[in-house]
Structure formats: structure tokens, C-alpha cells
Design goal:
Layout: H1 3-31, E1 43-45, E2 48-49, E3 52-53, E4 57-59, H2 71-77, E5 97-98, E6 101-102, E7 111-112, E8 123-124, E9 133-134, E10 136-140, H3 147-157, E11 161-165, H4 167-172, H5 174-182, E12 186-189, H6 202-220, E13 227-228, E14 234-235, H7 237-245, E15 249-251, H8 268-278, E16 286-288, H9 292-307, E17 311-312
Parallel strand pairs: 8-15, 9-17, 10-11, 10-16, 11-12, 13-15
Antiparallel strand pairs: 1-4, 2-3, 5-14, 6-7
Helix pairs in contact: 3-9, 6-7, 8-9
Length: 320
């Protein structure tokens, strides 16, 4: 082969190889779009809105070590959202109930109101597991200067939590809410105005949930995790059905103590001893972010639970 012709052929082969390598790299890059900037797998959520599909969003599992989410939990978060719109709410009892539970100091599941089975409405006060796992939750109506410290402790102990927030909390604390999501926690719905839900019409109740979640997306860029905690623990069968129809899981609690009154706080030692006495498998403790006692005791509480062999799960296990 003449030198000029041979050089031409070599040049053509080189161009073909270069194009092939470029295409391969683009395909690999597209395939890694579910990873965050640190190469860690992100959690992809996809929701279906009212007769239309919302866009997909990608969220990091966080950088605080709270990223060992089980495959089943990821699958639950990927499920398509289904909203039911044809329920006859007039046919559903609207009797007002206030959540109560009966403490058990044998480290067994707490008792609770038994007027009807809340599980029929996808409502829970414990996670049905026999293993040693606890599900930390906080209610956030306003900020009292302790949430950043609480997040620091959760990060240090590598423990996930669920924060039930009102719209005003999101509005006034956007950076904190973003941090919750960025560090692998759940941000859940505690309504817009914190009302007694059964006193509202069904449309007003739906608006309380949908407006809060829409504001969350607009203000932070993150989707709200579809878990609902009724304000003041007040609910009815109709309220629970309404939340279920919006694809929310309602979450009550099996452990609680007086921590929401900032002018009547327990001691940090009281919080530590309360957890020591009443922890149990599948427990969902109710804590409030405004409590200095919770801020001061949280590290010891989590360390003590770990010494007892407990791990910490996320509420997405309720959706499996």
C-alpha cells in the first residue's frame, strides 16, 4: 500500500475509534445520572398528581452516613402515587378522636385506642417489626434554636429521623428543611395551619395537606415525603380516609412525654430515663424540636439505644 493511502486509512480508523469511545462515555454518564456528586446512589421518587404525572426528582441519600437505605425502602419510594377521587366521604364517620396510648414498661408494644383499627386507613403508631428497631420522629411547628443541634447529633450518630413540618416552619426555616433532606432525613406533612382536622370540610383538609406539600416543593426543590401526622393527634375515620386517598400514610406514636411546652420543660435526665423505660421494637417516639431537653438528651438517648442492640429505621418501611 502506498504511504499516502496507508496514512489516510490509519486516519479514518482513528476517527472511528475516537467517535466510538466518545459515544460509550456519554452512555456511561447517562447511566450514572442517579448518583450524586460523591458517587453515592440517589433516591429517585416519582409521584402521580391529580390525573397527571409530576416530574421526577432525584434526592441524595445524604452525607452523614444515613445512606444505608434497604433496597425495599428504595422500591417503596419509587412507587407511583395514586390519588383516589371518588370516595363518598358523607358515608364515613367523622367522630372526633384524640390519639392516646398506654405505656408498657416491659419493652413491649404500647397499647392504644381500640375504638377501631386505624391500620384499615393506612395509619400506624408503631412499625410492625419484631427486630430491635426504633423510628425517631420530630414535630416542627416553629423554630426555637435547637434543630441545628439536633441535626448535628443525628449526623454524628448516623441516625435517620422524620420531621413533620408545617408550611410556616418551611417558610421560616428553608435552609434547615433543605439540610434535613440533604442529610438523609424525611420531611413529612404536619399541615399548613395546624388545625383540628375533623372540624374542617374534606376539601379544606385536602388543601391543608396539598398546599403544604406543594409549598415544600416550590420553596426547597424537594418533594415532601408522603407521611402525615394529624395536628394535636386529633382525627376521625373520615380524616384518615382523606389522607389515605391522597396516598399519605398517617403516623401517630407509641412513646411521648411533655416536651412541647417551652415554659415547662423536663430535664434532660428525665428524657434519657423515659427512653430507657419505654423503648420497644417498632417504637415511634414523638419528640418536639422546640425542646431544650430533647436537644440536651438526644445523644445519650441514641447511644443508650445502640447499647441495647437497637438500630434505627425509616418510616418508608410502612409502605413496603
Amino acid at each position: 500500500m502506498k504511504p499516502k493511502k496507508r496514512n489516510f486509512v490509519i486516519g479514518v480508523v482513528f476517527v472511528i475509534l475516537a467517535l466510538g469511545l466518545f459515544t460509550l462515555r456519554r452512555e456511561q454518564s447517562a447511566g450514572n445520572s442517579g448518583f450524586d456528586q460523591n458517587g453515592k446512589v440517589g433516591m429517585v421518587t416519582e409521584e402521580k398528581g391529580r390525573k397527571k404525572t409530576k416530574g421526577k426528582g432525584t434526592e441524595s441519600t445524604g452525607q452523614n452516613g444515613v445512606e444505608n437505605v434497604e433496597e425495599g425502602q428504595l422500591s417503596s419510594q419509587k412507587k407511583e402515587r395514586v390519588i383516589v377521587e371518588d370516595t363518598d366521604y358523607d358515608a364515613i364517620d367523622n367522630t372526633l378522636y384524640s390519639w392516646w396510648f398506654k405505656r408498657n414498661d416491659n419493652h413491649e408494644k404500647s397499647g392504644c385506642q381500640d375504638d377501631f383499627d386505624i391500620a384499615e386507613f393506612d395509619a400506624h403508631y408503631t412499625v410492625p417489626v419484631s427486630e430491635k428497631k426504633i423510628y425517631i420522629t420530630f414535630d416542627c411547628g416553629y423554630e426555637n434554636g435547637y434543630t441545628a443541634d439536633i441535626l448535628d447529633t443525628l449526623k454524628e450518630e448516623q441516625v435517620p429521623a422524620a420531621f413533620f413540618v408545617t408550611q410556616t416552619y418551611i417558610r421560616d426555616n428553608i435552609d434547615l428543611v433543605k439540610r434535613m433532606k440533604e442529610e438523609g432525613h424525611l420531611v413529612c406533612n404536619h399541615t399548613v395551619t395546624h388545625p383540628t382536622m375533623p372540624s374542617k370540610s374534606v376539601e379544606e383538609q385536602k388543601k391543608e395537606l396539598l398546599t403544604c406539600e406543594q409549598y415544600m416543593k416550590e420553596a426547597t426543590g424537594y418533594d415532601m415525603d408522603l407521611f402525615f401526622r394529624p395536628p394535636k393527634g386529633e382525627y376521625s375515620k373520615r380524616t384518615l380516609q382523606m389522607a389515605k386517598d391522597l396516598d399519605y400514610t398517617t403516623v401517630f406514636w407509641s412513646m411521648a412525654y411533655l416536651d412541647y411546652d417551652v415554659n415547662n420543660q423536663p430535664s434532660g435526665e428525665h428524657v434519657v430515663e423515659h427512653f430507657k423505660k419505654y423503648y420497644h421494637p417498632g417504637a415511634i417516639p414523638l419528640m418536639h424540636n422546640v425542646s431544650v431537653a430533647n436537644r440536651d438528651a438526644l445523644s445519650r438517648v441514641l447511644k443508650n439505644l445502640k447499647k441495647e442492640g437497637y438500630g434505627f429505621g425509616t418510616l418508608y418501611e410502612l409502605k413496603e
